Amino acid sequence: MNGNEHESKSLYEAIGGADALSRIVEAFYPKVQADPLIGPLFPPDIVPVMEKQKLFLTQFFGGPPLYSDQYGHPMMRARHMPFPITPERADAWLGCMKRALEESGLEPELQTLLLQRLKGPAYHFVNTPQ
């Protein structure tokens, strides 16, 4: 697939939809849980978090509005305010996602597009100085 084909469809469609997104999320959260900076911010039972993340990323990458249909407007910055998110923690989150994307089997170009799309929100959630 060339760059023009990626531009003509949503990222959700380009990566292969729900199955690909599930693979990414399932590769991502064990990395998050093992990370000393961000793991402690997550509950021990990560399954509900993973389910919400699948719904949110489906919508975020241009698929059906599953998250909004179930939970209303995402308001992601507000939902992250109770947690001390530093620039270093945003970096750690993105690092976990980068490794999960590398394991996902997606084309490198798609991995880069997804990571670029996630960088803005990751740093937008920062609410605590270093």
TrEMBL record:
InterPro entries: GlbO/GLB3-like, Globin-like_sf, Globin/Proto, Hemoglobin_trunc. The keyword Iron applies. The keyword Metal-binding applies. It comes from the Bacteria. Pfam families: Bac_globin. Belongs to the truncated hemoglobin family. Group II subfamily. This is Globin.
